[in-house]
Design brief:
This protein is of the alpha+beta class and 492 residues long. It has a domain of 173 residues. Helices cover 40% and strands 13% of the residues. A hairpin with a 2-residue loop joins strand 6 and strand 7. Helix 6 runs parallel beside helix 15. The model has no long low-confidence stretch (mean pLDDT 90). This is Transposase DDE domain protein.
C-alpha cells in the first residue's frame, strides 16, 4: 500500500472540513461546503479565538472536534476522546501536540454560540436545495431505475412547483442539573428529583433530500411550548411555491392562513375535531369535496389584534378521503385537508401518496435521535445544551449532504441511500481525511460507500415493536438519590 503523505493545509481554517468530508472540485455541489462562507459566519458573530501562535483550539478545530463527538457513541463520544483526536490531528500535521486535558477544549466550546452553528446548518440546506432540481417529473421507469422508494416515486410523477417540506415534533432529554431544570423543566407529572429536563423540538425537513431546513426548540411544558407555537417561529423559513405536509395537530385555521399568505400550499390530515363531511361542502366526487372554513370568532391570546383582523374571513380547502389496507396502519380511513384545489393537476390518488410519504420525517427523526444518539443530551448548562443540539444537527446535514452528493454521481434517489452507512463512513474518515493528502481514490470512496446499500424498498413492511434480547432489570429510583442515601444512613 503506497504511503499517503500528510496534508500541509492550515488546520486552523475551515478547509479542514473539506478534507474530512472528502471534497474536491470535481464533485457535484462541491461549493456547498465552503470554508470561506463558514469563516464569514463566524466573523459576522464576532467569534474569534485561538489565533495565537501556540493556540490549538481555533473555531475551526473546536467545531471539527464537536462534530467528531456526534459520529461516535459511548466512550468515543466523550470530550476526552475528542481531545485525543485533536492531539492526533496536530501530531499528524506536524504541529505542537496539545495536552489531552479536556479543560481547554471545554472552554473553547463555550465560546461557540449555537446561533453560529445554526446558521451553517441552514446555509448547507439552502445551498444544496437550491442546486437540486426537485421539480423534475419522473416516469415510473425512471423512478425504478433510480431505485426511488414508492412514496417518492408517486410524488415525483407530478411537478409541485417548489420544495416539499415535512414538519413534525419530538422531545429530547438533557442532563439533570439545576440550570437545565430551570430552562427546560421536567415533565410536570413527575416528582421533583426523579425526572430529567425535557426539550420540545419542531423540525422542518425536505422530503426529497432529507436535509434539515430549520428547527426550533423550547421547554416541554408551559405557555407557548406547544408544537404549533414553536412552528410559528419558523414560518419565515417557508418560501412561495413550497408545499407543507403535516399531521392533524398542525391543521389549524391560523397556520393554514399564515401559509396561504406566504404562497405556501398545505397538505395535512384533517383535525379530529373538525367535521369530515360538513353540510356546506360542495361535492367534487365520491371521496372529494370543497369546504369553507370561517374565521374563529374569538381571537387567540397570543395573536395581536391588528394581525387578527388581517386574517381572511374564510378559507377554501379540499377534503380527500383516503382508505388504506396496509398492515400496521392504525387508521384504515382518514381525511386529508389541502389547499390544493385543482383536481386535474393534483388528483386524489396523488394527494394520498403525498401525505403517506410524510412517514419519511419519522425516519429522519429516528436518524437524528437514535443513529446520532441525540435523544439524551449530555451538556450541563442550557447554552451548551443548544450548542450540543445544533452540533448534532450539523452532523446530520453533513451526512445528508454526502448522501445527496453520492446520489447525483450515481443517478440514485437520495432517499434510497443508507444514512447509517454514510455516518459510519464519515466517522471512519473524519480524522483520516483531515491528516492525509486527499487522493482521487479517497474521493471516489466517499462517493461509492453511501450508495453501496439500498433502503426504502420494502413496501408495506411491518415489524412488531418488541425486543428478543432481554434487558438488564434494575430497580427504579422512586425518590431523589439524596433522600435515598439519607435513609440508608439513618438505617445504619
Amino acid at each position: 500500500m503506497p504511503f499517503i503523505p500528510a496534508s500541509h493545509s492550515n488546520a486552523a481554517s475551515f478547509s479542514l472540513f473539506n478534507r474530512s468530508m472528502m471534497q474536491n472540485a470535481s464533485l457535484p455541489l462541491s461549493d456547498v461546503i465552503n470554508d470561506q462562507r463558514w469563516q464569514q459566519v463566524f466573523d459576522e458573530h464576532e467569534i474569534n479565538f485561538g489565533s495565537g501562535e501556540d493556540d490549538v483550539y481555533s473555531p475551526a478545530i473546536t467545531l471539527w472536534a464537536l462534530i467528531s463527538q456526534v459520529f461516535f457513541s459511548g466512550e468515543q463520544r466523550s470530550c476526552k476522546a475528542a481531545v485525543i483526536r485533536v492531539a492526533n490531528l496536530c501530531a499528524a500535521l506536524g504541529r505542537r501536540v496539545c495536552s489531552t486535558n479536556t479543560s481547554a477544549y471545554c472552554r473553547a466550546r463555550l465560546k461557540i454560540p449555537f446561533i453560529v452553528i445554526r446558521d451553517i446548518v441552514q446555509q448547507i440546506a439552502a445551498d444544496a436545495e437550491a442546486a437540486c432540481d426537485q421539480n423534475r417529473v419522473q416516469t415510473r421507469e425512471q423512478s425504478a431505475a433510480r431505485l426511488s422508494p414508492s412514496s417518492i416515486a408517486d410524488m415525483k410523477s407530478r411537478s409541485t412547483g417548489g420544495r416539499i417540506l415535512l414538519v413534525d415534533g419530538f422531545t429530547l432529554t438533557a442532563a439533570d442539573t439545576p440550570k437545565n431544570q430551570r430552562a427546560y423543566p421536567q415533565n410536570p407529572t413527575q416528582k421533583p428529583g426523579l425526572g430529567f429536563p425535557v426539550l420540545r423540538c419542531v423540525s422542518l425537513i425536505s422530503m426529497t433530500t432529507g436535509l434539515l431546513v430549520d428547527l426550533v426548540s423550547g421547554p416541554y411544558s408551559g405557555k407557548g411550548s406547544g408544537e404549533t407555537a414553536l412552528f410559528w417561529q419558523m414560518l419565515d423559513a417557508l418560501r412561495p411555491g413550497d408545499t407543507l405536509v403535516a399531521d392533524s395537530y398542525y391543521c389549524t385555521y391560523w397556520l393554514v392562513s399564515a401559509c396561504r399568505a406566504r404562497g405556501v400550499q398545505v397538505l395535512m390530515k384533517n383535525h379530529h375535531l373538525r367535521d369530515d363531511h360538513p353540510q356546506n361542502a360542495r361535492r367534487l366526487s365520491k371521496r372529494e369535496r370543497l369546504v369553507t372554513w370561517s374565521r374563529p370568532l374569538q381571537r387567540p391570546d397570543w395573536m395581536p389584534r391588528q394581525e387578527f383582523w388581517q386574517q381572511p374571513l374564510t378559507l377554501t380547502l379540499r377534503l380527500v378521503d383516503v382508505q388504506t389496507n396496509q398492515p400496521g396502519y392504525r387508521a384504515k380511513t382518514f381525511t386529508i385537508a389541502t389547499s390544493i384545489t385543482d383536481r386535474k393537476a393534483s388528483p386524489a390518488r396523488w394527494i394520498a401518496a403525498m401525505y403517506q410519504s410524510r412517514w419519511l420525517i419519522e425516519l429522519d427523526i429516528r436518524s437524528i435521535k437514535c443513529s446520532l444518539g441525540m435523544d439524551i443530551l449530555r451538556a450541563k448548562s442550557p447554552d451548551m445544551v443548544l450548542t450540543e443540539l445544533w452540533s448534532c444537527l450539523l452532523a446530520y446535514n453533513l451526512i445528508r449532504f454526502k448522501m445527496l452528493q453520492s446520489s447525483l454521481s450515481t443517478d440514485r434517489d437520495p432517499r434510497s441511500l443508507s444514512f447509517a452507512t454514510t455516518q459510519q463512513m464519515l466517522a471512519a474518515s473524519w480524522l483520516l481525511g483531515a491528516v492525509t493528502k486527499l487522493t482521487d481514490e479517497l474521493v471516489a470512496l466517499g462517493q461509492q460507500v453511501p450508495s453501496s446499500e439500498r433502503v426504502g424498498h420494502r413496501t408495506g413492511r411491518t415489524e412488531p415493536r418488541a425486543n428478543k434480547r432481554r434487558t438488564k432489570v434494575l430497580a427504579l429510583l422512586k425518590q431523589p438519590r439524596y433522600h435515598y442515601h439519607q435513609q440508608r444512613k439513618a438505617i445504619v
